[in-house]
Specification:
disordered C terminus; 2 domains; mainly alpha; two-stranded parallel sheet; disordered N terminus; two-stranded antiparallel sheet; 9 helices; de novo design (two linked rop proteins)
Length: about 260
């Protein structure tokens, strides 16, 4: 009787317990797949915009979306950043459905997600500190990749057959390689002589559309420096001299 009562009690209590690790990991896996599908769609759309040079939906012309996409940071080594995101989300989705061993699948998904999050964080830094513009679509894509990493971190075990301490030896090099590699690839990307930055071009287009003019004295020693801060002549607005010895004004169109 005692044994039977104990078994019945375990059955009643077991009905209110949290899901078994396998069930929990299954839910997390489906969450990873759902986020990967969303990221795949956004990356595909951004890749299309990159090649079609169309204005992104829900973004006004000349907004942060256009500035970021037209900047020299929108591609790395000639490859559109959006396409890299497309490949990353596709790999995550494909591996999540693959028949790889639990160890290889878990480690591959973790490394891909960590790589994506690190690169997305680096690009967000560039948007804020260098480009001075924010692309909402890029932030959504970065958030989806971060969500995938969080779901993977909730898995138990995180990587079957690999301890958490051992996994740290993979994490450090991945972050270091992504940051160092991106920095080297982007070195001088926005300081090429003869080219204006995306922000300068967008500013010049805005000033040209409003018929704005810059007034300066051609004989002033600081005038060239201030003028060069707006970019190359092809990207600046009309310049007038503010002195009686004025040279004829020159109309310069924004490119």
């Amino acid at each position: 009787m005692v044994v039977a009562y104990s078994r019945r009690r375990q059955q009643r209590v077991g009905g209110g317990q949290s899901p078994a690790p396998a069930d929990s990991n299954g839910l997390l896996q489906r969450g990873v797949q759902a986020l990967a599908v969303l990221g795949l769609g956004i990356s595909a759309y951004l890749t299309y915009l990159h090649y079609s040079e169309s204005t992104a939906a829900l973004c006004t012309e000349g907004s942060g979306c256009d500035i970021v996409r037209s900047s020299s940071y929108s591609a790395i080594l000639g490859i559109p950043v959006a396409m890299l995101g497309l490949v990353g989300f596709a790999l995550i989705l494909g591996i999540s459905f693959s028949k790889l061993s639990p160890f290889r699948k878990g480690l591959s998904l973790y490394i891909l997600a960590l790589t994506g999050v690190t690169f997305s964080a680096y690009l967000t830094y560039l948007e804020v500190a260098v480009i001075n513009a924010i692309c909402p679509y890029c932030l959504v894509s970065a958030s989806l990749m971060a969500g995938i990493l969080v779901l993977l971190l909730l898995r138990r075990p995180l990587v079957p057959g690999l301890s958490t301490n051992a996994l740290k030896w993979y994490s450090g090099p991945v972050v270091l390689v992504v940051v160092a590699g991106s920095t080297m690839a982007y070195r001088g990307a926005d300081t090429v002589e003869g080219e204006a930055t995306a922000f300068q071009i967008a500013l010049a287009q805005h000033l040209t559309a409003g018929n704005a003019a810059m007034y300066g004295a051609y004989w002033c020693p600081t005038a060239p420096t201030r003028k060069s801060s707006l970019g190359t002549p092809s990207s600046t607005s009309t310049t007038w001299s503010a002195t009686p010895r004025a040279r004829p004004p020159t109309r310069l169109s924004a490119s």
